[in-house]
Amino acid sequence: MKVFSDYHHSGLYFSLHLLFEERLGWELFRPIGMEWFPDWWDIAKPYGQNESTAKQYLEIRDSEPFYAPIDGSPVLNSIVDRKPDYYVIQEIAHNYKQKAMTFQQFLDTDIDIIIASIPDHWVTYTKLRDMYKPKAKVICQSGNIFWENEELIRNGTVKNLMASTKRFDLPKGIHNVFYHQEQPVIPYEPIKKTGNISSYTHLLPLPGLYEEYSRVLPQYNWRAYGAGCPNGLIHKLEDIYQNMKDSDMVYNVKPRGDGFGWIWHSAFMVGRPVITNFSDYVDKLGGELFEDGVTGINLEAKTVQENADMIRKFFDENYVEKMGENARKRWEQVVNYDEEFGVLQKFLERLI
């Protein structure tokens, strides 16, 4: 089976690689080449159809230097080989090879499934299928639920929904599956009491809150990683995992939260309790992992001073280590990739 998917989030696409190529043994392709833009590639729409955004994801250069994103994030199109039907890309963040198609290569290839992972592409890729690949099935993947998703679900655009979100009611007739995006699982290592409290959210939302807690708790090493953050980017997933293992807690404040939340799920998988505003996650899939005072700390439940006193107490009484154990155990209770794979197989066998 040949599967074609858009590519806007490296973690999501890697989870599709793990599903379709590693587990099922199929082939997964993504777009490359500026011919896709703007008619069949909508990721730049929120940025005013900025051509530099399109170049970041699509531009082909036959030799180094490959197009470097202006935000300092990893190169997305590091071409290591050319096949007759696709390019081979070395993906840096997750260390694997991707298959990428120009628009003409897409037209010349029999495609079985087309995956659209943003609401704009739910519409655009359905048109793409109707015009060029009428035998293909379209899957609308959802990692976030906002108003535009709901409207497209209600109006009949969506036939097959693959949602890595908290379960919600759907109109009758929509073929669906709810699941967790798969990521590599590493062995649990107990908290080392390094005093490191680390954030990995790009642009450091609510920086004043972060600065306030780092000011009232100066005995801990506060570190913020990501685009536009004081400690810079960490490019590779394995390095993020190692950095988390070298941390005692993960500070994760993100207004509106995530539909899925790779950093959130990674923190619990590694076994590091989170410091958060839980209203960001209470109605999201990741909310199933959180329990205040057990797997993390909800900053909204108490005052800044009360939270600071509690964090110090948890460290002084070695309870933070127990919270790390609790976080990993909760993740193991909630997430089961092998079990979900069986459900995903049934979903894929019955696409509309």
Structural account:
With 352 residues, the chain is an alpha/beta fold. It has 2 domains: 2-180 and 337-349, 3-Layer(aba) Sandwich (Rossmann fold), CATH 3.40.50; 196-334, 3-Layer(aba) Sandwich (Rossmann fold). Helices cover 34% and strands 17% of the residues. The protein has helices spanning 10-23, 51-58, 103-107, 119-132, 147-154, 207-216, 237-245, 262-270, 304-316, 319-334, 337-349; strands spanning 2-5, 27-31, 79-82, 87-91, 96-101, 113-116, 137-142, 160-163, 175-178, 196-199, 221-224, 249-251, 274-276, 296-298. It has a 9-stranded mixed sheet with strand order 3-4-5-2-1-6-7-8-9, with helices on both faces. A hairpin with a 4-residue loop joins strand 3 and strand 4. Helix 8 crosses helix 10. The longest helix is centred in the C-terminal third of the chain and has 16 residues, at 319-334.
Order of helices and strands: EHEHEEEHEHEHEEEHEHEHEEHHH
Average residue-wise pLDDT:
94
CATH C-level category of the largest domain? Alpha Beta
Rg on CA atoms, Å:
21 Å
Point out poorly predicted stretches: none
Major sheet size, sense and barrel closure: 9 strands, mixed
- How are strands sequenced across the largest beta sheet? 3-4-5-2-1-6-7-8-9
Number of strands: 14
Strand-residue fraction?
15-25%
Helix segment tally: 11
Structural class: alpha/beta
- What does the overall shape look like? globular
Cα distance, first to last residue? 16 Å
The assigned CATH architecture of the largest domain is 3-Layer(aba) Sandwich
